[in-house]
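2024-03-11 09:14:02 INFO worker-7 job=invfold-0412 stage=load source=structure_tokens
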């Protein structure tokens, strides 16, 4: 007795199509941080998160949570929509 052959998917599911796509780099946030001469470590301490999280937000790999985004607005003195136009 032989096993039936599985059919290959012709089109990938939408979740497969966008699996490796990263968000847009947040140039405005980077520019605001650098204008204030802050490192990612310093900004992270001011905001209350790690430097790794700041780097992930700046590179578009992660979106900020509510508390982090509110703190970023206060520290960088810029509105949420200017910092994150892609959200």
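2024-03-11 09:14:09 INFO worker-7 stage=emit residues=87
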């Amino acid at each position: 007795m032989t096993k039936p052959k599985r059919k290959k998917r012709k089109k990938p599911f939408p979740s497969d199509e966008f699996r490796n796509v990263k968000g847009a780099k947040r140039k405005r946030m980077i520019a605001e941080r650098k204008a204030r001469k802050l490192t990612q470590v310093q900004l992270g301490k001011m905001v209350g998160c790690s430097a790794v999280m700041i780097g992930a937000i700046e590179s578009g790999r992660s979106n900020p949570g509510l508390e982090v985004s509110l703190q970023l607005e206060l520290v960088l003195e810029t509105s949420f929509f200017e910092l994150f136009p892609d959200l």
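2024-03-11 09:14:09 INFO worker-7 stage=report msg="The chain has six helices and no strands."
2024-03-11 09:14:10 INFO worker-7 job finished
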